[in-house]
Amino acid sequence: MKLAYTYDNHHSAGTEWERRELKEWLTDVFEAPAVKIEPRCTSDIRKHVEGEFMNEGWALDVRLDSDSGIKVFSMKDDLAFQLQTGNMSRAPYDLLKLQYLFQSQKINAAALALPTKEAAKVIGDNIANAERVINELQLFDRVITVPILVVAFE
């Protein structure tokens, strides 16, 4: 697995991550040659990313609130991170969760990591991909107002 690119224009997300000196760390998480992009590799990707976040003190599987079973992949301070390697229908749900955290003033910025369109095709059928999510963020930029850094990997 390697970093393909980032999209950091959504409400100045790149600036938010750089200000906290975490953008380079986050993108380095996806420079992992030992993790191969192949059919059904999502558990390997998840395991690698969980390990990297745990090592840096991020909380994993964080509930949106105490009364809900809905969770985000990870949170630390005023940031949230979501990894999506599943069905495309899950990606808008991720955006909704991150927007909820932002509007609830629990975070000030977020990141969402997904495979590129080509990598998603290798992983499986109808897997969420960065290109489509970026298009949707641009379309819904007045609805999804949380600064979201999109990290695309392949």
List keywords for this structure.
single chain, 154 residues, alpha/beta, Restriction Endonuclease, six-stranded mixed sheet, 6 helices, 6 strands, 38% helix, 22% strand
Structure overview:
- This protein has 154 residues and is α/β, with parallel strands linked by helices.
- The chain has a single domain, classed as Restriction Endonuclease (3-Layer(aba) Sandwich), CATH 3.40.91.20.
- Helices cover 38% and strands 22% of the residues.
- The protein contains six helices and six strands; from the N terminus they run βαααβββαβααβ.
- Strands 1-6-5-4-3-2 form a six-stranded mixed beta sheet, sandwiched between helices.
- It is globular, with a radius of gyration of 14 Å.
- The relative contact order is 0.23.
